[in-house]
Amino acid sequence: xxxxxxxxxxxxxxxxxxxxxxxxxxxxxxxxxxxxxxxxxxxxxxxxxxxxxxxxxxxxxxxxxxxxxxxxxxxxxxxxxxxxxxxxxxxxxxxxxxxxxxxxxxxxxxxxxxxxxxxxxxxxxxxxxxxxxxxxxxxxxxxxxxxxxxxxxxxxxxxxxxxxxxxxxxxxxxxxxxxxxxxxxxxxxxxxxxxxxxxxxxxxxxxxxxxxxxxxxxxxxxxxxxxxxxxxxxxxxxxxxxxxxxxxxxxxxxxxxxxxxxxxxxxxxxxxxxxxxxxxxxxxxxxxxxxxxxxxxxxxxxxxxxxxxxxxxxxxxxxxxxxxxxxxxxxxxxxxxxxxxxxxxxxxxxxxxxxxxxxxxxxxxxxxxxxxxxxxxxxxxxxxxxxxxxxxxxxxxxxxxxxxxxxxxxxxxxxxxxxxxxxxxxxxxxxxxxxxxxxxxxxxxxxxxxxxxxxxxxxxxxxxxxxxxxxxxxxxxxxxxxxxxxxxxxxxxxxxxxxxxxxxxxxxxxxxxxxxxxxxxxxxxxxxxxxxxxxxxxxxxxxxxxxxxxxxxxxxxxxxxxxxxxxxxxxxxxxxxxxxxxxxxxxxxxxxxxxxxxxxxxxxxxxxxxxxxxxxxxxxxxxxxxxxxxxxxxxxxxxxxxxxxxxxxxxxxxxxxxxxxxxxxxxxxxxxxxxxxxxxxxxxxxxxxxxxxxxxxxxxxxxxxxxxxxxxxxxxxxxxxxxxxxxxxxxxxxxxxxxxxxxxxxxxxxxxxxxxxxxxxxxxxxxxxxxxxxxxxxxxxxxxxxxxxxxxxxxxxxxxxxxxxxxxxxxxxxxxxxxxxxxxxxxxxxxxxxxxxxxxxxxxxxxxxxxxxxxxxxxxxxxxxxxxxxxxxxx
Length: 875
Fold this sequence. Notes:
Blueprint: H1 5-10, H2 14-22, H3 42-51, H4 103-118, H5 135-141, H6 178-186, H7 190-204, E1 244-250, H8 255-265, E2 271-276, H9 281-291, E3 297-299, H10 311-326, E4 334-338, E5 342-344, H11 348-357, E6 362-364, H12 371-378, E7 382-387, E8 390-396, E9 413-415, H13 416-424, H14 428-437, H15 447-454, E10 461-463, E11 467-469, H16 473-476, E12 512-514, H17 523-533, E13 545-552, H18 562-583, E14 593-607, E15 610-622, E16 627-637, E17 641-643, E18 653-659, E19 662-663, E20 668-669, E21 683-688, E22 694-701, E23 707-715, E24 721-724, E25 735-743, E26 746-755, E27 760-761, E28 764-765, H19 768-775, H20 791-794, H21 801-811, H22 815-829, E29 830-837
Parallel strand pairs: 1-2, 1-4, 2-3, 6-10, 11-12
Antiparallel strand pairs: 4-9, 5-12, 7-8, 13-14, 14-15, 15-16, 16-29, 17-26, 18-21, 19-20, 21-24, 22-23, 22-25, 25-26, 27-28
Helix pairs in contact: 3-4, 6-7, 10-13, 14-15, 18-22
């Protein structure tokens, strides 16, 4: 990130230095250093047409993920956000497994080539005005109406979304900007490419962005009201307490964490308006279900895909504000936005007492640095467009004259007067700011600040959003959103128990904190909950347990990958074999079962913040009575990390693991359980203790002892984690792999991981030709261009011809033989811990899930929502 290429190469494992040196002008994996952009020539466009073009994320580059300054930029201001060239790197997957280029994209590129040949300067879109959708259709295309989303009918107005660009004839122009061409080349849908072309041309012709905006603030400079805070003083309930409209903008699948947070902030005197991301259907079903229980809770009847940094988040807030103002039966004084990753750190009574004292104020947190630096870092001087769930950067733009631009956090508390002004005002400031921020990255981090500071309400701003955010920029600023937005951004870290003291500070008023994630650490949420509302009674079940759904039957089987579907079925069979061996009585079949259909639901299960495995709910036929029953099976991964015996004198290595979806910010694999298939690209992670600088050798060995990769890693004295994804040729050979870690060629430790053979392809039983193609390993067992066969005798890893022949026969298996092979591999790396019944059963010794501590059907009082208590609360 801004470092010279040579310096980057020095930090890489030795095995890759030569490759990086030879390809220093190639795109660097991980999006850190990229080639200089140039305008596309007709020759280049013809090449795109010849080979076909499709978006492709290049492989990660080697990077040590440590706490020292070498793993992240010393100054995040220096991150190079200037270059988003089209990705022309071909996939290394075999051609038959790669995606084919959409013909429409070829046609569009051909039109671009033709127009350049003719020299007519026509639009790259090459379409008439009738085929370009107006901007208003964009908002409609990003929303979906829920059938039972709200019990309160209110008019759906367009005022909350992006303002309309009025033009009957969209202008055509020569699209020559390198960023716009890059966006056009990477965009997947025709609709999105049309929007990019239209937006670019309007901007180029000066028809899109306001040049000057009126300022209505009578003050010079920036107003900032000071508010007094004395946490120790128990304030009396005011005579006219404020009522709050909590707007929860949520996504994902953490329904139990959301319900726990909702339980903590609920009071009968306030109002709760919940927007669930358009892509989070499971969470939406859960929210609609619990919202029905309370008159002061409603769910938005519309939904948007609120991507990180997208303009849709601002549209969501503006539409929510309009909806709330049009609810005549809800009389509220303050608008507060929260996510499912927030949690209160003060009580509801304290919040009400404070806001009642300052009911005329607006609470927003500003950036606290000089404006020019903020504008550059935030990308406010760049034009962005959201479509295809991506924020495309299209070029530069000017900040409008006449106003002061400000920004900071997109979490705020706004009073009703200002919300009414932002929603209904048609003055020059509000109208033009809505236009400007419709094409802005992270607009919610700046729109309300800028409007407030230039409006007649400018003297009501308090530079404090009443929250604590857990920023750790060494870990959180890793450009982790580049697949969503053409920019490098940062994200806060999750709180841990050691952070609890920060919530008790009294330097400034704070009432909420973020972020919290129960799959990362639930203990800190429990600490806060008990601090605010006291401990649960002794013997309360489930307090240290956490369950999170990863699949639900209404999601549809299409939502699962072939890898997880294959393994979920195998887990089910593993559980039924356990039931037969431990519950079955000789001479009767009452506890013997036959699996039926696909799994009904799957949960992650954690106990004391440790991953315990998967809980699979599945339907079966009881062989004794031939009746359907529903069971839940708990499977747990076996321990696969092993220190060498006898142990070496090298003591820095603490743990090693292999998986996918490595989260460098929270330092864990988001693919819990490490479910891998032949076409996955695994990442090796090591955790280190402190000590002297050392170099270790990492060796990847496939199931038949073919050495797939070997490389060196320099471990600096302060490094805590390293991770690397070797560029292996696919498919990987199914079976149990081994990753060995050596110091001076002496084994320190090893870890194993399973690459599962697939029983499904496109959610259908796999065909023989597909199975053979996927399960035979790479061509000639060459995982990389370089062969490491000479290391086999050095490492005492003989290649057994009988083993190789068995692997060849396994690769050709299908049906029952394939399932038998898969189940033998799974049983070597996973254990069926227990099984229970969800409903009636003919097995007399089968336990009931609702009375089983580990089951997702067991009581979970900390997250369960019940009747409102006499004091108006749920907690």
